């Protein structure tokens, strides 16, 4: 991909156009986003997210960035785990800041489950992963789940994550990735291209957005390529954990 083009699914577009195109996708799917995740994955995405939160291991008093945090699915996990740690050890409340580019997704999250009363640790902001509204070296941990493939410039978003993390801060990226066997890859392709857009059409009344979802996964860097981009951005001790045979992968590193 050249500097004058960005991927939007299988299309190559002007980088200036991609943010608006992605915003349009999530404007349309925001209300049914969590339901569609359950339907598309058979609920398995919950196990991937639980494992990611356990790896994050949120602690009392920490500032945790949930970038592209959407409706707050991951942020609630972080807040719950930090509460449990505080109950065991004492200390201050953690703060989990959701930063999402799409206002509709943020509104859907803030209006769910009486968010302000039940989750006072969570703050919400509309912002860009490539230009976070946060000072340098301010966060203890950063997570981006199923959002990195939607940014225009992945390397810039990684550098921005490194900027806001304190030295030694934890970085985690949960994202769809590449199945590790050819047989699984073929089965996954068949399911993705035939079933997921059909579910989107039936449930969300939006086949096009879920066609983009499937295509964007195929254009996203594979496990080793993304690990290399993390190292270039300033992360050390980079590791990759495949989930469900590489259908999803958790990339982890530390700010150095």
Query: How helical, in percent, are the residues?
Result: 40-55%
- Give the overall average pLDDT: 93
Q: Can you list the strand order of the major beta sheet?
A: 5-4-3-6-7-9-8
Number of strands: 9
**Structural class by SSE content:** alpha/beta
H/I helix tally: 11
Indicate the overall shape. Answer: globular
- pLDDT < 50 stretches: none
Radius of gyration, rounded?
A: 17 Å
User: What order do the SSEs take from the amino end to the carboxyl end, as H and E?
Assistant: EEHHHEHEHHEEHEHHHHEE
DSSP strand content = 15-25%
Short description:
By secondary structure, this protein is an alpha/beta fold.
Short descriptors:
256 residues, alpha/beta, 7-stranded mixed sheet, 11 helices
């Amino acid at each position: 991909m050249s500097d004058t083009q960005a991927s939007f699914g299988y299309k190559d577009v002007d980088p200036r156009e991609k943010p608006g195109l992605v915003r349009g996708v999530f404007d349309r799917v925001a209300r049914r986003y969590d339901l569609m995740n359950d339907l598309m994955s058979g609920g398995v995405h919950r196990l991937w997210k639980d494992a990611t939160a356990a790896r994050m291991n949120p602690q009392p008093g920490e500032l945790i960035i949930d970038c592209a945090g959407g409706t707050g699915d991951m942020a609630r996990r972080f807040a719950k785990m930090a509460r449990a740690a505080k109950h065991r050890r004492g200390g201050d409340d953690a703060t989990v800041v959701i930063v999402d580019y799409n206002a509709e997704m943020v509104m859907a999250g803030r209006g769910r489950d009486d968010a302000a009363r039940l989750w006072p640790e969570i703050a919400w902001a509309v912002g860009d992963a490539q230009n976070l509204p946060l000072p340098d070296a301010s966060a203890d941990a950063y997570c981006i789940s199923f959002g990195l493939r939607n940014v225009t410039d992945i390397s810039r978003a990684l550098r921005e994550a490194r900027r806001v993390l304190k030295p030694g801060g934890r970085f985690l990226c949960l994202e769809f990735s590449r199945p590790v066997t050819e047989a699984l890859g073929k089965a996954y392709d068949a399911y993705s291209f035939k079933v997921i857009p059909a579910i989107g059409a039936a449930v969300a009344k939006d086949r096009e957005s879920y066609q983009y979802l499937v295509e964007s996964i195929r254009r996203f860097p594979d496990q080793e390529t993304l690990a290399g981009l993390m190292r270039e951005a300033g992360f050390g001790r980079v590791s990759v954990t495949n989930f469900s045979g590489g259908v999803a992968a958790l990339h982890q590193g530390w700010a150095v």
